[in-house]
Amino acid sequence: MSLRAIALFILFGCATIARGETALSVTQIAPGNYAHRGHDDVATPENGGDIANVGFVVGTRCVAVIDTGGTLAEGRALRAAIRAVTALPVCYVINTHMHPDHIFGNAAFRDDHPQFVGSVTLAQAEASRADNYMRALNRELGNAAAGSEIVPPTMTINGAGTLDLGGRTLTLRTWKTAHTNNDLTVYDEKSGTLWTGDLLFVRCIPVVDGSVVGWLDDIARIRQMNPRHVVPGHGPLDPPWPQSLDAEQRYLADLARDVRAAIKRGETIRQAVDSIGLDEKDEWLLFDMYHRRNVTAAYAELEWEQ
Ligand SMILES: [Zn+2]
Protein backbone atom coordinates (compact mmCIF):
# COMPACT_ATOMS: atom_id res chain seq x y z
CA MET A 1 0.00 0.00 0.00
CA SER A 2 1.47 3.38 -0.98
CA LEU A 3 1.64 6.25 1.51
CA ARG A 4 -1.13 7.98 -0.40
CA ALA A 5 -3.27 4.85 -0.27
CA ILE A 6 -2.65 4.53 3.46
CA ALA A 7 -3.57 8.19 3.94
CA LEU A 8 -6.76 7.71 1.95
CA PHE A 9 -7.59 4.58 3.89
CA ILE A 10 -7.18 6.41 7.20
CA LEU A 11 -9.17 9.39 5.95
CA PHE A 12 -12.07 7.50 4.38
CA GLY A 13 -11.76 4.31 6.45
CA CYS A 14 -12.23 6.22 9.68
CA ALA A 15 -14.99 8.39 8.31
CA THR A 16 -16.86 5.28 7.23
CA ILE A 17 -16.37 3.51 10.53
CA ALA A 18 -17.38 6.64 12.46
CA ARG A 19 -20.75 6.66 10.71
CA GLY A 20 -21.14 2.93 11.21
CA GLU A 21 -21.56 2.27 7.51
CA THR A 22 -20.14 -0.68 5.69
CA ALA A 23 -19.12 0.08 2.14
CA LEU A 24 -20.59 -2.09 -0.60
CA SER A 25 -17.93 -4.13 -2.38
CA VAL A 26 -17.20 -2.74 -5.84
CA THR A 27 -14.90 -3.71 -8.71
CA GLN A 28 -13.39 -1.23 -11.14
CA ILE A 29 -14.34 -3.05 -14.34
CA ALA A 30 -13.03 -0.25 -16.57
CA PRO A 31 -11.28 3.05 -15.77
CA GLY A 32 -13.69 5.16 -13.70
CA ASN A 33 -16.46 2.51 -13.81
CA TYR A 34 -17.13 0.77 -10.48
CA ALA A 35 -19.70 -2.01 -10.25
CA HIS A 36 -21.15 -4.04 -7.40
CA ARG A 37 -22.27 -7.60 -8.06
CA GLY A 38 -25.66 -8.36 -6.50
CA HIS A 39 -26.71 -11.78 -5.22
CA ASP A 40 -28.25 -14.16 -7.77
CA ASP A 41 -31.46 -14.49 -5.78
CA VAL A 42 -34.80 -12.94 -4.92
CA ALA A 43 -34.83 -10.39 -2.07
CA THR A 44 -34.53 -12.03 1.37
CA PRO A 45 -33.75 -10.72 4.88
CA GLU A 46 -30.38 -12.49 4.56
CA ASN A 47 -29.27 -10.65 1.39
CA GLY A 48 -31.01 -7.44 2.44
CA GLY A 49 -32.44 -6.94 -1.05
CA ASP A 50 -28.94 -6.70 -2.55
CA ILE A 51 -29.78 -8.67 -5.70
CA ALA A 52 -29.14 -6.25 -8.58
CA ASN A 53 -25.82 -5.07 -9.99
CA VAL A 54 -25.36 -1.38 -9.16
CA GLY A 55 -22.44 1.04 -9.34
CA PHE A 56 -21.04 4.43 -10.24
CA VAL A 57 -18.93 6.30 -12.77
CA VAL A 58 -16.37 8.93 -11.77
CA GLY A 59 -15.44 11.99 -13.85
CA THR A 60 -13.09 14.86 -13.01
CA ARG A 61 -15.98 17.05 -11.83
CA CYS A 62 -18.47 14.66 -10.23
CA VAL A 63 -19.92 11.16 -9.88
CA ALA A 64 -22.94 9.46 -11.48
CA VAL A 65 -24.58 6.60 -9.60
CA ILE A 66 -26.22 3.91 -11.73
CA ASP A 67 -29.00 2.23 -9.74
CA THR A 68 -29.02 2.38 -5.96
CA GLY A 69 -29.99 -1.11 -4.78
CA GLY A 70 -32.97 -2.62 -3.01
CA THR A 71 -33.06 -0.64 0.23
CA LEU A 72 -32.02 2.63 1.84
CA ALA A 73 -29.33 0.65 3.68
CA GLU A 74 -27.86 -0.64 0.42
CA GLY A 75 -27.93 2.87 -1.02
CA ARG A 76 -25.98 4.10 2.01
CA ALA A 77 -23.45 1.30 1.62
CA LEU A 78 -23.05 2.23 -2.05
CA ARG A 79 -22.52 5.85 -1.04
CA ALA A 80 -19.82 4.71 1.41
CA ALA A 81 -18.15 2.78 -1.43
CA ILE A 82 -18.12 5.98 -3.51
CA ARG A 83 -16.56 7.91 -0.65
CA ALA A 84 -13.82 5.29 -0.39
CA VAL A 85 -12.90 6.04 -4.03
CA THR A 86 -13.43 9.78 -4.41
CA ALA A 87 -14.50 12.89 -2.52
CA LEU A 88 -16.12 14.37 -5.66
CA PRO A 89 -19.82 15.22 -5.36
CA VAL A 90 -22.59 12.93 -6.61
CA CYS A 91 -24.29 14.98 -9.33
CA TYR A 92 -26.51 12.32 -10.91
CA VAL A 93 -28.40 9.29 -9.63
CA ILE A 94 -29.58 7.32 -12.64
CA ASN A 95 -32.28 4.63 -12.45
CA THR A 96 -32.22 2.11 -15.31
CA HIS A 97 -35.88 1.19 -14.65
CA MET A 98 -38.59 0.99 -12.01
CA HIS A 99 -37.91 -2.35 -10.31
CA PRO A 100 -37.49 -2.28 -6.52
CA ASP A 101 -34.01 -3.85 -6.48
CA HIS A 102 -32.72 -0.92 -8.56
CA ILE A 103 -34.44 2.12 -7.03
CA PHE A 104 -35.03 1.75 -3.30
CA GLY A 105 -31.58 3.04 -2.34
CA ASN A 106 -32.21 6.44 -3.96
CA ALA A 107 -33.02 8.22 -0.69
CA ALA A 108 -29.44 7.62 0.53
CA PHE A 109 -28.30 10.29 -1.97
CA ARG A 110 -30.94 12.93 -1.26
CA ASP A 111 -28.58 15.11 0.80
CA ASP A 112 -26.16 15.19 -2.11
CA HIS A 113 -28.82 17.09 -4.10
CA PRO A 114 -28.17 15.23 -7.35
CA GLN A 115 -30.44 15.14 -10.37
CA PHE A 116 -32.38 11.88 -10.18
CA VAL A 117 -32.41 10.69 -13.78
CA GLY A 118 -34.68 8.19 -15.53
CA SER A 119 -36.76 7.47 -18.59
CA VAL A 120 -39.59 9.88 -19.34
CA THR A 121 -41.96 6.99 -18.51
CA LEU A 122 -40.32 6.08 -15.16
CA ALA A 123 -42.26 8.35 -12.78
CA GLN A 124 -45.67 7.18 -13.96
CA ALA A 125 -44.61 3.53 -13.80
CA GLU A 126 -43.26 3.97 -10.25
CA ALA A 127 -46.39 5.79 -9.12
CA SER A 128 -48.69 3.08 -10.46
CA ARG A 129 -46.84 0.38 -8.51
CA ALA A 130 -45.70 2.34 -5.46
CA ASP A 131 -48.17 0.81 -2.98
CA ASN A 132 -47.49 -2.74 -4.14
CA TYR A 133 -43.73 -2.24 -4.12
CA MET A 134 -43.70 -0.77 -0.60
CA ARG A 135 -45.91 -3.56 0.73
CA ALA A 136 -43.81 -6.28 -0.91
CA LEU A 137 -40.56 -4.72 0.30
CA ASN A 138 -41.72 -4.62 3.91
CA ARG A 139 -43.10 -8.15 3.69
CA GLU A 140 -39.95 -9.60 2.10
CA LEU A 141 -37.29 -7.73 4.05
CA GLY A 142 -38.87 -6.63 7.34
CA ASN A 143 -36.54 -4.33 9.29
CA ALA A 144 -33.96 -4.34 6.50
CA ALA A 145 -36.41 -2.23 4.45
CA ALA A 146 -36.50 0.58 7.03
CA GLY A 147 -36.48 4.06 5.52
CA SER A 148 -36.68 2.83 1.93
CA GLU A 149 -38.86 4.94 -0.31
CA ILE A 150 -39.44 5.78 -3.95
CA VAL A 151 -37.63 8.95 -5.05
CA PRO A 152 -38.92 9.83 -8.54
CA PRO A 153 -36.80 11.37 -11.30
CA THR A 154 -36.11 15.11 -11.39
CA MET A 155 -34.61 14.87 -14.88
CA THR A 156 -36.01 12.67 -17.63
CA ILE A 157 -34.64 11.18 -20.83
CA ASN A 158 -36.79 10.62 -23.90
CA GLY A 159 -34.80 8.93 -26.66
CA ALA A 160 -31.22 9.97 -25.93
CA GLY A 161 -29.32 12.41 -23.72
CA THR A 162 -25.82 13.03 -22.39
CA LEU A 163 -24.44 13.75 -18.93
CA ASP A 164 -21.06 15.46 -18.51
CA LEU A 165 -19.09 14.27 -15.47
CA GLY A 166 -15.99 16.27 -16.42
CA GLY A 167 -13.65 14.52 -18.83
CA ARG A 168 -16.21 11.75 -19.17
CA THR A 169 -19.52 11.82 -21.02
CA LEU A 170 -22.32 9.36 -20.40
CA THR A 171 -24.81 8.70 -23.18
CA LEU A 172 -28.23 7.70 -21.88
CA ARG A 173 -30.78 6.04 -24.09
CA THR A 174 -34.37 4.91 -23.63
CA TRP A 175 -35.77 1.86 -25.41
CA LYS A 176 -38.86 0.32 -26.86
CA THR A 177 -40.89 -1.48 -24.14
CA ALA A 178 -38.92 -4.63 -23.32
CA HIS A 179 -37.98 -5.73 -19.77
CA THR A 180 -40.27 -2.87 -18.66
CA ASN A 181 -41.80 0.18 -20.36
CA ASN A 182 -39.11 2.44 -18.84
CA ASP A 183 -35.76 0.77 -19.63
CA LEU A 184 -32.72 3.02 -19.94
CA THR A 185 -29.07 2.22 -20.71
CA VAL A 186 -25.94 4.17 -19.83
CA TYR A 187 -22.86 4.18 -22.04
CA ASP A 188 -19.51 5.61 -20.97
CA GLU A 189 -17.95 6.77 -24.25
CA LYS A 190 -14.43 7.00 -22.85
CA SER A 191 -14.07 3.39 -21.70
CA GLY A 192 -16.69 1.82 -23.98
CA THR A 193 -18.62 0.54 -20.96
CA LEU A 194 -22.32 -0.22 -21.35
CA TRP A 195 -24.55 -0.39 -18.27
CA THR A 196 -27.56 -2.30 -19.58
CA GLY A 197 -29.81 -2.37 -16.53
CA ASP A 198 -32.13 -5.35 -16.87
CA LEU A 199 -32.08 -5.31 -20.66
CA LEU A 200 -29.35 -7.90 -20.10
CA PHE A 201 -29.64 -10.81 -17.69
CA VAL A 202 -26.67 -13.14 -17.45
CA ARG A 203 -27.07 -16.59 -15.91
CA CYS A 204 -30.22 -15.38 -14.08
CA ILE A 205 -33.38 -15.91 -16.14
CA PRO A 206 -34.61 -12.82 -18.03
CA VAL A 207 -37.89 -11.50 -16.62
CA VAL A 208 -40.52 -10.15 -19.02
CA ASP A 209 -42.42 -7.28 -17.40
CA GLY A 210 -42.91 -5.37 -20.66
CA SER A 211 -42.83 -6.97 -24.10
CA VAL A 212 -41.00 -10.00 -25.45
CA VAL A 213 -41.34 -8.64 -29.01
CA GLY A 214 -39.99 -5.22 -28.03
CA TRP A 215 -37.14 -6.83 -26.10
CA LEU A 216 -36.02 -8.85 -29.12
CA ASP A 217 -36.00 -5.65 -31.21
CA ASP A 218 -33.96 -3.85 -28.54
CA ILE A 219 -31.45 -6.71 -28.35
CA ALA A 220 -30.75 -6.36 -32.09
CA ARG A 221 -29.89 -2.68 -31.54
CA ILE A 222 -27.92 -3.25 -28.35
CA ARG A 223 -25.82 -5.78 -30.24
CA GLN A 224 -24.76 -3.03 -32.66
CA MET A 225 -23.40 -0.91 -29.78
CA ASN A 226 -20.52 -3.39 -29.53
CA PRO A 227 -19.32 -2.32 -26.08
CA ARG A 228 -15.85 -3.10 -24.73
CA HIS A 229 -17.20 -3.67 -21.20
CA VAL A 230 -20.68 -4.56 -19.97
CA VAL A 231 -22.48 -4.33 -16.64
CA PRO A 232 -25.66 -6.46 -16.83
CA GLY A 233 -28.54 -5.85 -14.42
CA HIS A 234 -28.08 -9.34 -12.99
CA GLY A 235 -25.29 -11.90 -13.22
CA PRO A 236 -21.50 -11.75 -13.59
CA LEU A 237 -19.87 -8.37 -14.32
CA ASP A 238 -18.25 -7.82 -17.71
CA PRO A 239 -19.47 -11.13 -19.17
CA PRO A 240 -18.32 -12.42 -22.57
CA TRP A 241 -19.79 -10.34 -25.39
CA PRO A 242 -21.82 -11.08 -27.45
CA GLN A 243 -22.26 -14.60 -26.03
CA SER A 244 -24.11 -13.29 -22.98
CA LEU A 245 -26.53 -11.40 -25.23
CA ASP A 246 -26.87 -14.46 -27.48
CA ALA A 247 -28.11 -16.61 -24.58
CA GLU A 248 -30.75 -14.07 -23.57
CA GLN A 249 -31.85 -13.58 -27.18
CA ARG A 250 -32.20 -17.31 -27.70
CA TYR A 251 -34.36 -17.72 -24.58
CA LEU A 252 -36.68 -14.86 -25.56
CA ALA A 253 -36.87 -15.87 -29.23
CA ASP A 254 -37.75 -19.48 -28.29
CA LEU A 255 -40.33 -18.18 -25.81
CA ALA A 256 -42.01 -16.03 -28.48
CA ARG A 257 -41.88 -18.82 -31.07
CA ASP A 258 -43.33 -21.49 -28.77
CA VAL A 259 -46.06 -19.25 -27.38
CA ARG A 260 -47.13 -18.21 -30.89
CA ALA A 261 -47.29 -21.89 -31.88
CA ALA A 262 -49.37 -22.75 -28.80
CA ILE A 263 -51.82 -19.94 -29.54
CA LYS A 264 -52.07 -21.10 -33.13
CA ARG A 265 -52.89 -24.63 -31.94
CA GLY A 266 -55.66 -23.17 -29.80
CA GLU A 267 -54.03 -24.02 -26.47
CA THR A 268 -55.17 -22.21 -23.34
CA ILE A 269 -52.76 -20.08 -21.35
CA ARG A 270 -52.69 -22.84 -18.73
CA GLN A 271 -51.71 -25.47 -21.31
CA ALA A 272 -49.00 -23.18 -22.64
CA VAL A 273 -47.59 -22.55 -19.16
CA ASP A 274 -47.51 -26.28 -18.45
CA SER A 275 -45.61 -27.20 -21.60
CA ILE A 276 -43.43 -24.40 -22.97
CA GLY A 277 -39.72 -24.06 -22.33
CA LEU A 278 -39.50 -26.46 -19.40
CA ASP A 279 -36.32 -27.96 -20.86
CA GLU A 280 -34.63 -24.58 -20.18
CA LYS A 281 -34.70 -25.31 -16.45
CA ASP A 282 -31.02 -26.14 -16.10
CA GLU A 283 -29.90 -23.18 -18.22
CA TRP A 284 -31.02 -20.42 -15.86
CA LEU A 285 -30.94 -19.52 -12.18
CA LEU A 286 -34.34 -18.61 -10.66
CA PHE A 287 -36.08 -20.52 -13.46
CA ASP A 288 -38.83 -21.84 -11.15
CA MET A 289 -39.52 -18.35 -9.91
CA TYR A 290 -39.94 -16.58 -13.25
CA HIS A 291 -40.22 -18.86 -16.28
CA ARG A 292 -43.95 -19.60 -15.98
CA ARG A 293 -44.63 -15.92 -15.43
CA ASN A 294 -42.73 -15.20 -18.64
CA VAL A 295 -44.88 -17.65 -20.58
CA THR A 296 -48.00 -16.02 -19.11
CA ALA A 297 -46.77 -12.52 -20.03
CA ALA A 298 -45.80 -13.60 -23.55
CA TYR A 299 -49.15 -15.32 -24.07
CA ALA A 300 -51.08 -12.21 -22.97
CA GLU A 301 -48.99 -10.11 -25.34
CA LEU A 302 -48.99 -12.39 -28.37
CA GLU A 303 -52.59 -13.60 -28.38
CA TRP A 304 -53.59 -10.18 -29.82
CA GLU A 305 -51.16 -10.42 -32.71
CA GLN A 306 -52.63 -10.80 -36.19
ZN1 LIG B 1 -35.78 -5.37 -13.46
Give an overview of the whole structure.
The chain is α/β, with parallel strands linked by helices and 306 residues long. The protein has one domain (23-302): Metallo-beta-lactamase, Chain A, CATH 3.60.15. It contains 8 helices and 12 strands. It has helices at residues 3-18, 72-83, 100-103, 122-141, 212-225, 243-264, 269-275, 287-302, and strands at residues 27-30, 33-36, 54-58, 63-66, 90-94, 115-119, 155-157, 160-164, 169-174, 184-188, 193-201, 229-234. The chain is globular and about 60 Å long. It starts with a helix and ends with a helix. Residues 1-19 have low confidence and may be disordered. The structure holds zinc ion. Zinc ion (ZN) binds next to loops. Residues 97, 99, 179, 198, 233 line the site of zinc ion (ZN).
Calculate the terminal CA-CA distance, rounded to whole Å. 65 Å
Overall spatial form: globular
Q: In this structure, how is the largest beta sheet organized?
A: 7 strands, mixed
* CATH class call: Alpha Beta
Let me know the number of strands: 12
Global structural class: alpha/beta
The third-level CATH topology is Metallo-beta-lactamase, Chain A
* CATH H-level homologous superfamily name: Ribonuclease Z/Hydroxyacylglutathione hydrolase-like
Report Rg.
20 Å
The set of bound ligands, ions and cofactors reads: zinc ion
Number of spatially distinct domains = 1
Order of helices and strands: HEEEEHEHEHEEEEEHEHHH
Number of helices: 8
SS strand fraction: 15-25%
Low-confidence stretches: 1-19
Strand arrangement within the widest β-sheet reads 1-2-3-4-5-6-7
Signal peptide: 1-20
Keywords: Signal
Protein name: Beta-lactamase domain-containing protein
InterPro entries: Metallo-B-lactamas, NDM-1-like, RibonucZ/Hydroxyglut_hydro, SoxH-rel_PQQ_2
